[in-house]
Amino acid sequence: MKTLATRSHRGRRFTEVGMGCAQLGNLSHAISDDEAEQTVQAAWEAGIRVFDTAPHYGLGLSERRLGRALRAYPRDEYIVSTKVGRLLVPSPETAGISDMAHFFDVPADHRRVYDLSRDGILRSIDASLDRLGLDRVDIVYMHDPDEHFEAASTTGAETLTELRDQGVVAAFGAGMNQGAMLADLIDRTDIDIVMCAGRLTLLEQHDARRMLELAAQRDVAVVAAAVYNSGLLSHEHVPDDAHFDYAPASAPVLARARDIERICRDHSATLPSAAMQYPLLFPQVLCVVAGVRGVDQAVQAVERSIRPIPTDLWRALAAAGHIDLPRHTIPEVFHVG
Question: What is the pTM of this model?
Answer without folding.
Answer: 0.95
